Amino acid sequence: MDKLTGLATSVLTLTSGLAIVTSTSQTVLAQVVTLQPGTFSYQAADLLAETPINLEEFCKVYPLNSRCASTPAQPVTPQPPQPTQETTQTGPTTSGWAITPEISTLGVGATVTKSITPNLNAKLGVRGFGTSANITESGIDYDAKLNLFSVSTLVDYHPWKNSGFRLTGGLVFQDNNIEGTGKSNSNQKIQIGDQEYTSDQLGSVKAKVSFPNSVAPYLGIGWGNAVKPGNRWSFSANLGVMFTGSPKVNLAPQFGGAATPEIRNQIQADVEKERQQLENDLKWLNIYPVLSLGLSYQF
Predict the structure, then answer these.
(1) In this predicted model, what pLDDT tens digit does every residue of 135-162 receive, in sequence order?
(2) What is the DSSP letter of 84?
(3) Does the predicted model carry a pTM greater than 0.70?
(4) Where is the composition biased (Low complexity) (predicted)?
């Protein structure tokens, strides 16, 4: 009976030592309790060593504890939803280098384009073409050959970033010319100006028409941007002029065996008069029209 009474006394003493202040700003202490020998375990008493407990922090961890009934629950701050990253659809990665095979009044060739700024491109082009024709008229054989070759160094300016319209300027290194030969294939006479000569006096006449400005300025307009970011393929069109100067004509007579010095001098004079007349007839052609179409591919 005495043992039961002592045990009850120990429990009451322990409970009173754990009195907790209800204020959330105060600290709860576990009081050391002196137990009577033989009435309780000393190991349990060791667990009740004086240790400060912060009620506010304690209630955050154990909010359903009976001692936390008077402690207001901490509001839970809702976390905003994480934005979903949208995958942006972009075009293919391009290098700013493009090549444009094209056909033009300068021949067939290709142009390499390099982007300098969003509005400025540099271009290097090479073109060429050759053809020949043989015509016989009134017993005279005419052999003609067209030679086209040019190298262009141009700059494109796009005044509007999202438009294909462009202004183009630069230089064209050209060697465009026409060569021909006229000779009699029978006893027909060759007429130079108002004079006629037999094939024994004048075997043939060689002619060449070329442009004096081997380096010709170029101005023009066009459509299409070969190095537009994100574009692989594009259409190209150009319209412009080269300032080649009026054509120059060269005539060289080939004398026959029957041509005396007097006849040769007469032929030379007639040929020179004919040359001047041809140059005067071609004087209006001091600019060379350029029209080109092409398909560009950007690397």
Answers:
(1) 887 678 889 999 999 999 999 999 998 8
(2) P
(3) no
(4) 84-94
